[in-house]
Amino acid sequence: MSEERAHLREMAANRGCRLIASRIRTPGRGDHGLYGLEDATTGEPVLGIGKRGLEATADEVEEFLRRGAATGWKRSLDAQPARKRTPKSARRTSKPKNRG
Fold first, then answer.
1. Rounded distance, CA 28 to CA 73, Å?
2. Is the pLDDT of residue 58 over 70?
């Protein structure tokens, strides 16, 4: 369990969030085994934090963090401006040097 929590905590930190884990240790009571995410700078809830406590499972948190990473890459690729191509007449062609 602690290994899974460490993995989720690291993923959340990389995405600018803080992992909140349930403090209830008795199975079947309250939000035992549930997680939530909050923004690391503002402390606002991002995922799985409701009025009654934590609401997200470890799998839901991991899916959210992975989906965010994939869309982040896609947004960065879409934001990259297209490279201008130089016309063929302006391209330099180098001739092999005669060595001999």
1. 39
2. yes
